Amino acid sequence: MFSDQQLRTLHAAIDRVIPPDDFPGGVEAGVADYLLRQLGRDLAHLAQDYPRFTDALEAEAQAAHGQAFVALGDAQQYALLALVERGEVQAVWPLDPATFFAQFIEHCAEGYYSDPGNGGNRDGVAWRMIGYEVNG
Amino acid sequence: MSHYDAIIVGAGAGGGVAAGVLAREGKRVLLLERGPHSEFAQVPRDHLRNQRMSFYGHNAGPDVDGNPRTLEDGSIVLPHERGYQNNAAMVGGGTRVFGAQAWRFMPQDFHMASTYGVPEGSSLADWPIDYEVLEPWYERAEWEIGVSGTDSAMTHLPPYKRPYPMPSLAPNTSMRTHLKGLENLGWQALPMPQFINSEDYNGRQACIRCQHCVGFACPVEAKNGTHNTTIAAALRSGKCELKSGVMVERIDCDDGGRVRGVKWIDNGGRRGSATAEIVIVSAGAVESARLLLNSATTREPQGLGNHSDQVGRHLQGHYYPMVIGLFPERMMDNQGPGGGVATCQFNHGNPDVIGGGMLADDFIVLPIISWKMYAPRDIPRWGHAAKQFMRDKYRCLGDIKGPVHEIPSPDGRVTLDPKVRDKFGIPVAHLSGTTHPETVRTASFMYERAEEWMRASGAQKVWGYRPDLRLSGGQHQAGTCRMGEDPAQSVVDPWQRVHGHDNLFVLDGSVHVTNGGFNPVLTIMATSWRAAERIVEQW
Ligand SMILES: Cc1cc2nc3c(=O)[nH]c(=O)nc-3n(C[C@H](O)[C@H](O)[C@H](O)COP(=O)(O)OP(=O)(O)OC[C@H]3O[C@@H](n4cnc5c(N)ncnc54)[C@H](O)[C@@H]3O)c2cc1C
Asked: What residues does each domain of chain B span?
């Protein structure tokens, strides 16, 4: 579904949405695994759009900085995504940037904060971070 | 073909109680349920697919595939989608995964029309029975199903004749904070009565205060539904045969109006049928109406019991104003079920609005639900600040909400879709209309009271959701087979026998004339208990 490059872009974007700090970022916590699983399941209708989205992020990075998205620093990636969120893009996007980004951040949160059985929130790390305990 | 004393369609709250009563009295019962008879492990703790967060699916049925309904705009909705008005489909019905709030309605709830008058366009009406009639049955359900609570705190009701069988659960942090809020305001405060064991009861253990109560099955069966009480007892008696995974397609009725039995289709597509002396319909408000409508005869071409065009009308649930507050200190201490303190200060007697409703703090909120629905709208949705919010504040959020007594409309209704069929080939429910607009005014009034309470509890920041006009039903669905003396204005008589049919009954939320300003299931159990005992007495 994703080429290696698309996957790297996706990972970088996920880690800007849920960045690592003293708790794991999205990728380390399994958000990409969650997403890949969902693209074969409930989000199958987005299976083609997601690679288009990462390609568009790539094109955006090239248009704005002449560099690959993953080559940008965190702050530059963040700033670029903030423009995408507002729909202020330079490249030609095959899908509506603001709408797609809004969905993307929801999917990231679903992976991070839902139960580990869904593929993300590895070992319940997000729940530990926020103090949601499961006993019984 | 097998013959039974009674066939019950639907093993939920009403049907489960009926099965218990009839089997205990020695009647041979066939209990038919379209959903599964699930063990704890078969009701997944999936935070994205459950009866509280059903964006991608749910955990208590009905199956997402093959059970559509249709809406007024022509769209087809699936069971987990908005607008479907789903409750649940499994043995125990909604009680398998409910929040277990065990409310009696108030005396005034049975006299809404005579207390408030009938707003134009609404079908607000009095019940043909009242609180006094139901009181012994409330008590019966509280003791036999098992409720923990504090009767002396229920000052909005006439004094209880018998206390609750178990004391209230010990308060958690959220309850203590919100209790202080109520005290600051001088409003009535009470611990919410719950179908939850606060101590060992009926051979099952006490609640372990886990964090997956509402929307999930209980890991230790300390949550009391019909599946582990009346249905379990009926099965133990050897008098009740349970068939799960069977969808009843039609009630058979002869030309004289006498019901003969039912036909069903199982999940493998096999057809079956049985006959009985009586048939009890307990499929929940939407599906009970659908089944009666789908059982038309030459004598009643519009559906059984539908000679007055009443079946399926007055569909009601509850509007839920919800207020969220951000507190300076932690509210969530992981002591489930979470919710627990309530006020009935505003169920009645409010200026310029009809009725009102109970307000309470809510259950422990799953992290993903908190992020999607509770986080303030003015914080960033991604990046460091978003993560930091969840990290610092997830446990500092509180919520207050409550069911508003709906003002029904005859146009809020269930009919049959002329074209769309389910996977069994049965015409599906078509949902149309809305609740009467007066309900929006009452809900707004209640929203403001919830806001006041939230501030008084010490929230620094308060926001929330005010309900808009819409069709209601959902988990609190009721009203589609109204109880009444007059066959021109109701579907069942005060003993829940379908007008014009000696041996056909409806025992579930459908019979509610109005739905109270409370979660409805204790009232469903009480009416069903009363009707089932009467059926046995008159046998
Ligand atoms: C998550 C959740 C939380 C809730 N919390 C509370 C609460 O705290 N307090 C409260 O009072 N209420 C609560 N409720 C609502 C409560 O569960 C319902 O009010 C109650 O279950 C309704 O009872 P009923 O008998 O009308 O129908 P149900 O309990 O819905 O039972 C109907 C049964 O009939 C079956 N059925 C339908 N059609 C057919 C057919 N054709 N053939 C065979 N079987 C059929 C269904 O599958 C279902 O199991 C909650 C519900 C849910 C889902």
From this structure: 3-538
Q: What is the CA(B90)–ligand 1 centre distance, in A?
A: 9
Consecutive 10-residue averages of pLDDT for chain B (539 residues): 95 98 98 97 97 96 97 98 97 98 98 98 98 98 98 98 98 97 98 98 97 97 98 98 98 96 96 98 98 97 98 98 98 93 98 97 96 95 98 98 98 98 98 98 98 98 96 98 98 98 98 98 98 97
The count of other CB atoms within 10 Å of the CB of residue A122 is: 17
CB of A114 within 8 Å of a chain B CB? The answer is yes
Residue B386 contacts A where some CB pair is shorter than 8 Å? yes
> How wide is the angle at C-alpha B441 spanned by C-alphas B437 and B443, nearest 5°?
105
Domain ranges of chain A: 4-124
Minimal C-alpha gap between A46 and chain B (Å): 14
Residue with tokens 């009403």: B14
CB B477 within 8 A of CB B289: no
**Nearest residue in A to B391, CA atom:** A130
Can you tell me which atom of ligand 1 is nearest the CA of B93? Answer: 49
Cα of B433 to ligand 1 centre, how many Å? 22
**pTM (whole model) above 0.90:** yes
**Domain B3-538: top CATH class:** alpha beta
- From B57, which residue of chain A is nearest by alpha-carbon distance? A42
Q: What was the ipTM of the complex prediction?
A: 0.98
User: Which tokens hold the place of B377?
Assistant: 């709208």
